[in-house]
Amino acid sequence: MAHSFFGSIEKAAAERLILWAFQEDLGERGDLTCQGMIDPALIATVKIVSRQPGILAGLPIAQMIYQQMDASIQWEAFAVDSDELTAGQVVAEVTGPVSTLLTGERTVLNFVTHLSGIATLTSQYVKLAAGTKARILDTRKTLPGYRSLAKYAVRCGGGHNHRMGLYDGILIKDNHLAAWKPSGSVAEAIEHVRAQMGANIDIEVEVDTLEQMVDAMRAKPQIILLDNMTTRELTEAVAYRDQHASEILLEASGGVNLTTVAAIAATGVDRISIGALTHSAPQLDLALDWGAALKK
Predict the structure, then answer these.
(1) Are 40 and 115 part of one and the same domain?
(2) Annotation says 227 is catalytic
(3) What domain range includes position 183?
(4) Which residues contact 279 (CB under 8 A, 6 or more apart)?
(5) Contact 261/125 with Cβ under 8 angstroms?
(6) What CA–CA distance (Å, rounded) separates 121 from 37?
(7) Which residues are in coiled coils (predicted)?
(8) Would you tell me how many other CB atoms lie within 10 Å of the CB of residue 182?
């Protein structure tokens, strides 16, 4: 089984989101359907099954949900996050009161299908960039509250995380330049930030043209983000970087999809950042299989 990346940060994020999920789903009255139909003494074993191939992410959250609802729930996992799943594969078995299993079903699937979808899409990009040095990175384009878990799912799919938030990295974008000094050069902006934040601070800067890249390189940022450039421009940028400042990392962004990513990776860029990993990933189809016999 593959390695799981689920740690204390992800657990804390999941605990907060699970609480919110319970509040919005159960309100003050609980599950009215189960209250009106299901014998509280009824016990069942259900299976969490993948209906299609993909990469698993979020399974520990499913266990957390059910065991927070009822400590007597029995949980057995047959896979771990980052595992590659086949259609029909059983990833876990859960035994407990039917009312609890039914009440938690949608909350469980909301987490696991969403995060597995992110991991699966990330894996597709990673495979298309294989054989190059390009790393596939996510962005800050995540649903509020979900960032730690979304970025966790990216790692499960073989991708890498860009900065977690504004607090842990400097990225000078075109809007920053325009707000600071519309006529200022990129190199000037980098030097200004260093003067304000300290000479040892790592800086990434976004450029739209090769001319801006050449200007930025004069100030030696750690990373230059090449925004919406053609593969020809990216190839030229890599060649110029290799000749004049090979220590600077180049990151491609914009216009990246499953059709274009292989060609972009082949230009020689070091990093490719893709917002779609977290904001446009389709859910992976997982379901609860209620085939097991019910008992009291």
Answers:
(1) yes
(2) yes
(3) 169-274
(4) 141, 142
(5) yes
(6) 39
(7) none
(8) 7
241 is catalytic: no
Same domain, 104 and 192: no
Residue 116 lies in a domain: yes
Annotated catalytic residue within 16, 76, 106, 295: 106
Q: Residue 208 catalytic?
A: no
173 is catalytic: yes
> Is 163 within a domain?
no
Binding residues for substrate: 106, 139-141, 163, 173, 206, 227, 253-255, 274-276
Catalytic residue among 173, 194, 218, 220: 173
Name the strand (E) or helix (H) holding 43: strand 43-50
Ordered per-residue pLDDT tens for the chain, 296 residues: 445 679 999 999 999 999 999 999 999 999 999 999 999 999 999 999 999 999 999 999 999 999 999 999 999 999 999 999 999 999 999 999 999 999 999 999 999 999 999 999 999 999 999 999 999 999 999 999 999 999 999 999 999 999 999 999 999 999 999 999 877 799 999 999 999 999 899 999 999 999 999 999 999 999 999 999 999 999 999 999 999 999 999 999 999 999 999 999 999 999 999 999 999 999 999 999 987 556 76
What's 188's domain CATH number?
3.20.20.70
| Residues 49-83: b if buried by 16+ CB within 10 A, e if exposed | bbeeebbbbbbbbbbbbbbebeeebeeebebbbbb
Domain assignment present for 159: no
C-alpha–C-alpha distance, residues 230 and 234, integer Å: 6
Whether 63 and 114 map to the same domain: the answer is yes
The answer to whether 288 touches 101, Cβ cutoff 8 Å, is yes
CA 172, 193, 169, 18 dihedral sign is negative
Give how many domains the chain has, as a whole number: 2
